[in-house]
Amino acid sequence: MPIEFTHVPDKPANGSFFYDFAETATKLSLIEDSGFRKLVVDDPAGLLTNMDIAAQTLDRTGSLEVVLTHWAGVIEPTVAAGQLAALDRRGGGRLSLRMLSEPLEDSDAEARPVGHSVVWQRIDEYLVLLKRLWSNDRPFDHEGAFYSVRDGFVPRKGPHGADLVIRLGGQSGTALKVAGKHADVFELAAGSPDEVRQLMERARSAAAEHGRGGRLRFALPVRIRPDGWTGASDHKAVEIAGPPARLALALLPYAALGVEEFMIGGIDRLGEIARIGRETIALVANSLARREAEVPQPGALASHPFAQHCAS
């Protein structure tokens, strides 16, 4: 089972990982060479800045995939579809779209109730429109709860077309329903292996309702701190202090559950990036390759004594 590692830059209060792109280019090269497959672009400046950063990152790297953080409602779906298709072409198919839920900010927001379910309904309609714009061969009209489109058409599609990788997360029934319909990658909430397993089962069940249960892949946020490792959610995260080798052991029980991607945050310094790549990423890959060679049956890794030892 191949495991991918994604670098998630921090959001410091005084600046940005991408503030000085000459310096950032050095980091991007190291990230790419250290075994990271993807980079999350989620700058505090917002969506339009994210798109510019994504373009620069795609230009300055050869294989690194860009996970672009995006929100429904900031720009019209017809505009977004064209810009995202252009980015995907620019990177030769190295773009994926990470949709986050944000409160509605329409001028008429006070005229109707705005809540959790409304936000996700808007995301659902937005993604339906993006996919349709990326695949249609002639203009179309659309009249929905949130968007009105006339002669919607994107003449130049991206390499992925309507199959551009979509990433979603969430734990509520409403969020899981939308993720089950649209997500190719489901970003999990941090928790113990048992908590993560339960959320994975719920997400798969939601995807299965749309015939997509076997298509869903899972990514787990992981944050590395100077005194060790912790999941992204402090109130119920697994916490392990120690060197990169110990960090690798902490990830194996999650890989045994079927997590195929670890989103690593907290390592923006060059030395940290290099060390995690040289030790943690390499150890996880080698350990899993060795375990799978010993236990080739599907799903057997989860019950293997090695995995049970790591989880304890």
What do you see in this structure?
The model is unreliable at 103-113 and 300-312 (pLDDT under 50). The protein has an eight-stranded parallel β-barrel, surrounded by four helices. The protein has a two-stranded antiparallel ribbon with strand order 5-6. Helix content is 43%, strand content 19%. Helix 5 (173-182) crosses helix 6 (193-208) and helix 7 packs across helix 9 (305-311). A hairpin with a 2-residue loop joins strand 9 and strand 10 (228-231). It is of the alpha/beta class. The chain has one domain (4-311): Luciferase-like domain (TIM Barrel, Alpha-Beta Barrel), CATH 3.20.20.30.
First and last CA, distance:
22 Å
CATH superfamily heading: Luciferase-like domain
Query: Number of helical runs?
Result: 9
Shape: globular
Rg over alpha carbons:
20 Å
User: What is the residue-averaged pLDDT?
Assistant: 86
Number of domains: 1
Annotated CATH topology = TIM Barrel
Question: Which CATH architecture?
Answer: Alpha-Beta Barrel
N-to-C SSE series? EHEHEHEHEEEHEHEEEHEHH
> CATH class, anyone?
Alpha Beta
- How would you sum up the major sheet? 8 strands, parallel, barrel
Q: What's the number of extended β-strand segments?
A: 12
Describe the SSE topology.
Elements: E1 4-8, H1 21-33, E2 38-41, H2 47-60, E3 65-71, H3 77-90, E4 95-100, H4 116-135, E5 140-143, E6 148-152, E7 165-169, H5 173-182, E8 185-187, H6 193-208, E9 217-225, E10 228-231, E11 239-240, H7 244-257, E12 261-265, H8 270-294, H9 305-311
Parallel strand pairs: 1-2, 1-12, 2-3, 3-4, 4-7, 7-8, 8-9, 9-12
Antiparallel strand pairs: 5-6, 9-10, 10-11
Helix pairs in contact: 1-8, 2-3, 3-4, 4-5, 5-6, 7-8, 7-9
